[in-house]
Amino acid sequence: MGIDPKARTRRDAATHRPWRWCSARTLLIAGLATGAWGAGCGGDSGSTQESCPAGQILVNSRCRPDGSNPPRPPRDDVSAPGEDVAREDTTPPEEDALEGEDAVGDPNPDDPGVSDTGTERDVHVEPDLGPPDLGCGPGVPPTTLRGRVTIPAGTLPLPDVTVYIPGSAPDPIVTGATCTPCERRGGGFPLAEATTNIRGEFELVGVPDGEDVPLVIEVGKWRRQVTLPWVEPCVTADLDPDLTRLPRNQGEGDLPQFAVTTGGADAMECMLRKLGISDEEFTTETGGGRVHLFAGRDGTNRFADSLNGGATLTNAWTWWDDVDNLMSYDILVHSCEGATHSRDKSTAARDSLLAFANAGGRVFLSHYHYYWLSAGPPDFQAVGRWEAYNGALGRTERGNIDTSFPKGSQLAEWMVETGTTPAGEFEIEQPRGSLRSLNADLAQQWIWLRPTCNFFTRLQFPHLCEPSTQATQYFSFNTPVHAAPESQCGRVVFSDIHVSPRDSSGPSHRFPNGCTTTELLPQEKVLVFMLFDLSRCVVPDKF
């Protein structure tokens, strides 16, 4: 049965009760953490009668049969009354180890049946109580919630998303380039937790039941918090899919802070819109939206009159020179401008981009924005060797997913789940060729193609016709480039593909008027997967 949002009004007042948590794990959390929302079972902390089934008592946070700790048997080495015999064991009686436990200094800690004098001793063996009781009684399935996490548009599932019931309010998400290790959670003391599979599915087992149960869905700096009006105890319920998609706007939850530069050859701003982000979140840098647009060469430079009053976008080439401008963002997205436009990308701008990435920022570069890498600081230049060979590629090519590393295999499986077949392959519209070779010690290839060799290709770029050639179309690397993996917290993704080739970007197309398509091409689905991978905490691609 599903979660009914109107359950609270239909429920008889006599059955009203707050949500509760009856597992031993939460009893431990409640005892150790202050500010938790639930302690004990049924709201009666400290009551052993409600915490355990009939005939059992609570001992050391575990339900045990009543009388499971019988009195100690007589010791053989204790003198009888009236006898004046010295005790070999000088430990005061009140400090003796309990039966079934090892005394301090016991040379045989792994053998509970041998004392420190080498003689056998009585051992109390606790009965096997089976699996822990999660509040529903013996043989009754625990309260369980099932659901499916999708992108904001609700159309594509997302794997590796964390879903949990918080025991306290999660910490606020900090906007801007930050270096946050993966092991540092956002707080919340999860009482029940799950991670989505390749189909975006999750199952939360042992959920607290009752009224107004909080649920958190989180991946990177995307977070949605909802309140379930009523959770029926001891049943398995399917959640409304609209509750488990990621937020479309700030009214629904947290989104990363994006800075997007437009360009005449790609329309990444339209890609984010197809992701499901609401139009009101697209603003200038002075607005309150989570996607700030900047005008790149030959790209969209104004909003439509119906959005933000038709405001004019700040020129990207004056904005990205200052590193302080970049540091207030989580993710930078640069749309292809149709040429490198090297004069727009000063040394200060290239140094600023490196500093942003090294500080934990995330960067996505489309096609000709390879200039940030090929002519950037030495760390960026070390990633690969560059050579433009656009003319050697056809209008469409067969793309291949590199499945030699775990994330690549996951992408290939995910593409099949979202309707792209055959496995590991898809058609690329407007592929481009810019990379001669990739430094595999520093970067990871995701997508590659084998160019169709014609007379021109064999004459100008003979290396592309070698049987082993893999012309890289997507790759990623972590930053600082030469740092140890545990010290890397930034990430850069490069695409040699015009990601959104069917949408239009240019001065004559005021945003969002140039965004005319709604269906995601296979190459756009790849970007969806990689954008959310870009949002996550940074881990090595090769592990």
Low-confidence stretches: 4-50, 67-121, 126-131
Q: Structural class, from secondary structure content?
A: alpha/beta
Q: How does CATH name the architecture of the largest domain? A: 3-Layer(aba) Sandwich
Q: What percent of residues are in strands?
A: 15-25%
CATH superfamily of the largest domain: Class I glutamine amidotransferase (GATase) domain
Q: What is the radius of gyration computed over CA atoms, rounded to a whole number of angstroms?
A: 30 Å
Helix percentage range: 10-25%
Mean model confidence by pLDDT: 81
Q: What does this protein look like?
A:
The protein contains 12 helices and 21 strands. It has about 550 residues and is an alpha/beta fold. It has 2 domains: about 5-60 and about 130-245, Sandwich (Immunoglobulin-like), CATH 2.60.40; about 260-535, 3-Layer(aba) Sandwich (Rossmann fold). The chain has a 10-stranded mixed beta sheet, sandwiched between helices. A 4-stranded antiparallel beta sheet has the order 5-4-7-8. Strands 6-3-9 form a 3-stranded mixed beta sheet, with no helix packed on it. The model is unreliable at about 5-50, about 65-120 and about 125-130 (pLDDT under 50).
Q: How is this fold's topology laid out?
A:
Layout lengths: L6 H4 L13 H9 L15 H4 L4 E4 L2 E4 L78 E5 L13 E5 L23 E6 L5 E5 L4 E10 L2 E10 L4 E3 L19 E4 L6 H8 L6 E2 L7 E4 L21 H4 L3 H5 L3 E4 L12 H12 L3 E5 L4 H4 L3 H4 L2 E3 L9 E6 L4 H12 L7 E5 L5 E4 L5 E6 L5 H6 L10 E9 L10 E6 L26 H14 L8
Parallel strand pairs: 3-9, 10-12, 10-13, 11-12, 13-14, 14-21
Antiparallel strand pairs: 1-2, 3-6, 4-5, 4-7, 7-8, 15-18, 16-17, 16-19, 19-20, 20-21
